[in-house]
Amino acid sequence: MIVHFDALPHDARVWIYQSNREFTDVEVTQIASKIEEFMATWKRHGDDLKTSYVIKYNQFIVLGVDESFNNVSGCSIDSSVHFMQQLEKEYGIDVTNKMNTAFKVGGNINIVSLSDFQKYVKEGKITSDTTVFNNMVQSKVDFDSKWEVSATESWHKRFFGTVIS
Questions:
Q1: Residue percentage of the chain with pLDDT more than 70
Q2: Quick check: 48 and 3 in contact, CB under 8 A?
Q3: Measured distance CA(10)–CA(46) in Å, rounded
Q4: What is the pTM of this model?
Q5: Strand-pair partners of 43
């Protein structure tokens, strides 16, 4: 069962998939349709899941499940990963590479490798005040409040240990 993303409870579980590139408006429409088709059949051992999704900045796909309705299982999580891998093949995108890091400068979202992120910190191109995307958040409340934050409010802060005075 698909619900509006805002209708998910605060403790709903979320998974964030960050694309290595921005989707076109046509791709957003197509991807949204495919996500809805997937979610209409997404189950946990035959039981319905209360699900939702949102596509942010034409670059991030966020899947959510209300686990107070039914918990997700390893098999249902695996099926969502396989679905995302199908999107990767179909659209020539990379959404499962957890070594890519996203940050925002002005209105532009930049995706770089983790090693390049560290290099940019050392060079001062990324500062502790740079907005980053903490794709490790696991609940809707954390997505709403701790996903798009300054680097010092995220796991990214570890790269500033010797840079911040």
A1: 92
A2: no
A3: 25
A4: 0.90
A5: 48
